[in-house]
Amino acid sequence: MNHRKVIKQVIPKKTFKAVEPYGHWAEAALAQVKFLFPARKLKVIGVTGTDGKTTTCYLIYEMLKNSGKKTAMITTASVDYGDGKGQQPNPTTLTTGNVFKLLDIIKTIANNDVEYLVLEVSSHALNQRRVWGIPFYLAVHTNMSHEHLDYHGTFENYKKAKGILFELCNKNKNGLQTGVINADDKTASFFKDKIKNPVLYGTKNGDIKATSVKSSLEGNQFTVISGKDEYSVNLRLIGEFNVYNALAAVCVGHAVGLDKQQIKEGIASLDYVTGRMMPVDEGQNFHVFIDYAVTPAALDSVLATANNLKMKSAKVHIVFGATGDRDKEKRPIMGEVTSQQADYVYLTDDETYTEDPTTIIDAVYTGVDDKNKDKVKIINDRKMAIKAALKSAKKDDVVIISGIGHQASRNMGGKKVAWSDIEVTKELLKNKNHLSK
């Protein structure tokens, strides 16, 4: 048991809540002193938002690297220490880890003479001051929707936590004091007011816009309009939501002084992001994607993408579940969204943590409208759910396996167990006999 859990058990709840922010600040200050404020040697680009953070980080990272900038990256999925060894699994398994571990990683990166660090920043990390003392060179906000209200309490508190990144960026007079903001998101004005130099992007609004979007199951093509400048971009990632993620990266490219050719080549260089609408092709005659969607908005986006891009006669299948010990309010909404958008739904375990798996599944199922209940199969065993979806898929259908994404393990009953949606799916597709049993 860590020291924070011990203190929470000893101190009354109200008292702990009142003093906790000061504890986080003290912890961050101690960590910064211990590691000698390592981020001061770097140009740190912070990326926050509900969905799309990891993909946006990857796009920015690839773009900077391709332009010749020595770049490191810390995301939920992976870490590149800037040592020439490429991406490695994130040792913390968190979006933004414990402040001591985070700064230890950043110190290693700084010692590798890196110029840019692309850092994915969670609302928990911002609220708990884990990134205090990091001089953000530039800030990016992707979007906001229903998530983490179990922790933040209200959407307003959640939004305020995200806003801390822009406040920190605005205080760094050695940085660009620039915030890249999704103009089509309902929270755009909130973030715009927090930064000296806002740059807004979108398909409908913004300083930098995407027009003439052409989408397929192989990717997107669109035209970037920035002032009087126009140029085409090829994006290998599918879905309109990835057009937004790419636009955020385009804005970063403009802000740091890249030319349009460097931006175009950087965006086009990314084949996929592990576990983010990642295609799996083992020679089957239908489409399979592994995704990390865990919010109602993200599930709605990936399913809308599948419905818009599939052949008219094809069906959409989704395997998903809800995470235990997390935001319970979103569970029925997840059930509602998936059963409305998909033709076949395989409701299964995600990560249970300490909750009863049946309770989690039942909560998701309450959101399913009576007219859509025939679409839903409840299969507690995740491998069997994936197998059922793959077995039922016909030619040109789209199968989405969502929730675990890049992870190589999951928490079941409070214990970490080895698990990979990617490897399980590949195994089932490679061995056709598994699907026939």
Can you characterise this structure?
By secondary structure, the chain is α/β, with parallel strands linked by helices. The chain has 2 domains: 3-268, 3-Layer(aba) Sandwich (UDP-N-acetylmuramoyl-L-alanine:D-glutamate ligase), CATH 3.40.1190; 278-436, Protein-Tyrosine Phosphatase, Chain A. The chain has 16 helices and 19 strands. It has helices at 3-10, 13-35, 53-66, 99-110, 123-127, 149-152, 155-171, 188-192, 240-255, 260-268, 296-309, 330-341, 357-365, 382-392, 421-430, 432-436, and strands spanning 43-48, 71-74, 78-80, 87-89, 116-120, 136-141, 178-182, 197-202, 208-216, 219-226, 229-235, 278-279, 287-291, 316-320, 344-347, 376-378, 398-402, 409-412, 415-418. The strands form 3 sheets. It has an 11-stranded mixed β-sheet, sandwiched between helices. It has a 6-stranded mixed β-sheet with strand order 12-13-17-14-15-16, with helices on both faces. A two-stranded antiparallel ribbon has the order 18-19. The longest helix is centred in the N-terminal third of the chain and has 23 residues, at 13-35.
Summary?
The chain is an alpha/beta fold and 437 residues long. The chain has 16 helices and 19 strands.
- CATH fold annotation of the largest domain: UDP-N-acetylmuramoyl-L-alanine:D-glutamate ligase
Distance between the termini: 44 Å
Classify the secondary structure makeup into a structural class.
alpha/beta
The CATH superfamily of the largest domain appears as Mur-like, catalytic domain
Q: In CATH, what is the class of the largest domain?
A: Alpha Beta
Provide mean pLDDT, rounded: 91
Rg calculated over all Cα atoms: 22 Å
Instruction: Specify the helix fraction band.
Output: 25-40%
Strand order of the largest sheet: 4-3-2-5-1-6-7-8-9-10-11
Strand segment tally: 19
Main beta sheet, described?
A: 11 strands, mixed
CATH architecture of the largest domain: 3-Layer(aba) Sandwich
Model regions low in confidence, pLDDT < 50 over at least 5 residues: none
Count, helices: 16
* Shape annotation: globular
Strand content: 15-25%
The figure for the number of domains is 2
